Amino acid sequence: MDHQRRLRALRKKMREQKLDSVLITHLPDVRYLCGFTGSNAALAVTQERAVLFTDGRYTAQAKLETTGARVVIAAKSALGEACSWIEKSGARRAFYDPQNTTVAALGLMREAVSRRRQQTFFQPLERPLTMDLRMVKDAEELLVMEKAALLGCHLFEAVLPHLQPGVPEIEVAATLEFFARSLGAEGMSFETIVASGKRSAFPHGRATEKRLPRRGFVTLDFGVILNGYCSDMTRTVYLGRPSKAEQDAYDAVLAAQEAAVSAVGPGIACGEVDEAARQVLRNAGLDQYFTHSTGHGVGIEIHELPRVAAKQDQVLMPGMVVTIEPGIYIEGKFGIRIEDMVAVTKSGARVLTPAPKAMIQL
Question: I want to staple 83 with a disulfide (CB 3.0 to 4.6 A). Which of 29, 112, 162, 352 is the partner?
Answer without folding.
Answer: 112
